[in-house]
Write a structure and sequence with these properties.
Blueprint lengths: L1 H21 L3 H13 L1 H10 L4 H44 L6 H4 L5 H13 L1 H45 L1 H16 L3 H37 L4 H13 L4 H13 L3 H15 L3 H10 L6 H15 L3 H21 L14
Helix pairs in contact: 2-7, 2-9, 4-7, 8-9, 9-10, 9-12, 9-13, 9-15, 10-11, 11-12, 13-14, 14-15
């Protein structure tokens, strides 16, 4: 008895130590598992075409993910860093030499052009005093930007690491599925297969919802860019798809709208601003919940609470984790309610 207790304590200690060692990689492992699961039909098709060579199929799909996702994200990260450095240099130059001459299109602005020119020169004359007043806050703003930049860089690194780890999920996917089923069977018994299908279906619908919504936003953004005459519309549409996966599509259509105003195309600028806010960004609130709830037995309110609550509680990873947790809990409670009630023991007659 004492030996069994020591063995269990040792096993718990080893399990805790293993989880502690793996803690820095949980997010990357989670993303690798989600991406591998979402693209598993493609993995099976490619394995069949390559004559059953799973390692080769896994390597090709991993390379495809790196080209489609990792390289654009790295390019976007370096581009943002370059823009931040340019912004810092611009602020330093403004402190020394003041504002440049007002652009010609500012004077041509209907009704308020002269007033804008006056504000421009007034701001230029008061620039030194303004920077002196803002100087105590610029350090705090710099620290805030630096912290957000480090967080963004960490997120990009985790995603790139997950694209490396996805190779092992592809190659060993069947063994990992069998291992997960055995663990679940030991925990909940014969209902393991039901909950395996439940978790798999929920993750599949969430992935379809996220990717489907990002594709729809990219297409709508492309239509808006083509109508407004924004150059490089197809490239911007592809970048919108990437930013939609990160849930920030305004990072693309917002600067494009500003560019139209700077070029004097006010009509198209207003159109793209309205199109971006109500159509490109607005479709996320309609299409994503529909795609996630479609084909499942979960009420829509459970899906919405899972998506929104997961995002607020766990960040972007909660977009997948929240609906899965609520789906499992909802089905556990449903099974408990539908299970036959335990028969009560018959009453016993007590002697007087």
């Amino acid at each position: 008895m004492f030996d069994n207790l020591l063995l269990r304590i040792l096993l718990i200690f080893l399990l805790g130590a293993s989880l502690w060692v793996m803690a820095p990689f949980w997010t990357a492992l989670f993303w690798a598992a989600v991406l591998a699961f979402a693209s598993w039909p493609l993995m099976r098709l490619l394995t069949r075409l390559l004559g059953g060579r799973e390692a080769l199929a896994a390597g090709l799909l991993t390379a495809l993910w790196i080209v489609l996702v990792a390289l654009p994200l790295l390019w976007l990260g370096f581009g943002l860093a370059e823009k931040m450095r340019a912004g810092v240099e611009l602020v330093k130059n403004l402190q020394v030499s003041g504002l440049p001459p007002p652009p010609p299109w500012l004077a041509r602005t209907p009704l308020i052009g002269d007033r804008l020119i006056g504000w421009w020169y007034s701001l230029d004359q008061q620039g030194v005093a303004m920077f002196a007043n803002l100087k105590p806050y610029m350090g705090q703003m710099g620290n805030w930007v630096l912290a957000r930049s480090a967080k963004l860089a960490g997120g990009i690194f985790e995603l790139v690491l997950s694209l490396v780890l996805i190779f092992f999920f592809y190659r060993d996917g069947r063994r990992l599925e069998h291992f997960a089923y055995q663990v679940l069977e030991r925990l909940i018994g014969p209902r393991a297969e039901h909950y395996m299908e439940l978790i798999a279906g929920t993750v599949q619908r969430v992935v379809n919802g996220v990717i489907g919504t990002a594709a729809a936003q990219a297409i709508l953004a492309l239509i808006g860019f083509l109508i407004a005459g924004v150059p490089g519309a197809f490239i911007l549409g592809g970048l919108t798809f990437v930013c939609s996966l990160l849930m920030f599509p305004p990072l693309i259509w917002g600067p494009a709208t500003v560019w139209l105003f700077l070029q004097g195309n006010y009509g198209y600028g207003v159109f793209l601003a309205i199109w971006g806010f109500f159509v490109i960004s607005g479709v996320d609130n309609i299409l994503k919940p529909y795609l996630i709830s479609r084909g499942g037995n979960l009420p829509l309110v459970v899906v919405l609470l899972g998506v929104l609550g997961g995002l607020l509680s766990f960040g972007f990873i909660g977009l997948f984790l929240g609906p899965v947790l609520l789906a499992v809990v909802y089905n556990l409670v449903s099974d408990w309610i539908e299970s036959p009630k335990r028969a009560l023991p018959p009453p016993t007659d007590k002697a007087p």
